[in-house]
Amino acid sequence: MEGTYFDASDIAEAPAREVLDEGIYHVQIVKATTGESQNKKTPFIEIVGKVVEDAPMQMNDSTPKGRDLFYTLYFSRAGSGQNAAISKRSLMDLFGQVKLDPPEDGRFDLTQLIGREVFYIVKQETYEGQVRARVNATKAINV
Fold it and tell me: Domain span at residue 95?
């Protein structure tokens, strides 16, 4: 039946996208959305930053410029709720780093982040047997 199969035989040898090296990446925030994890239904915020500089140079000599990095903050209320408190503090810090006042009422307008620039601090981790780059913090750009 036409339209139900995709023939990938001609791209079977296409190179996989390399995992970014650990380092500090200058990004411009291009998207900020909310969601819920599939398994536990934990609310989260995902802040997508596009790398705007060629640094840091990668071990494989590729450039990170133009790549998207995803900063995800989970707001789990399980256990002591400490995870949610840490994520809220990280979100407040991010707002301050891009020169926005965190809202007094706790209702963050994520669209205010779009177009702002910040550094993403990336570490590599192994998740379900796969190495991946994970944004684990942000840092202000002092201009």
Answer: 19-139
Assigned domain for 75 exists: yes
CA–CA gap between residue 68 and residue 75 (Å, rounded): 22
Looking up residue 55, the CATH number of its domain turns out to be: 2.40.50
Count how many domains the chain has: 1
Q: Based on the number of CB atoms within 10 Å of its own CB, is 49 exposed (0-12), middle (13-18) or buried (19 or more)?
A: buried
Beta bridge partners of 17: none
**pTM of the predicted structure, to 2 decimals:** 0.78
pLDDT by residue for the chain (143 residues), tens only, comes to 455 566 555 555 544 557 888 999 999 999 999 999 888 888 889 999 999 988 777 878 778 899 999 999 888 877 666 778 888 888 889 998 999 988 888 888 999 999 999 999 999 988 888 888 889 888 988 75
Residue 81 tokens read as 């709720």
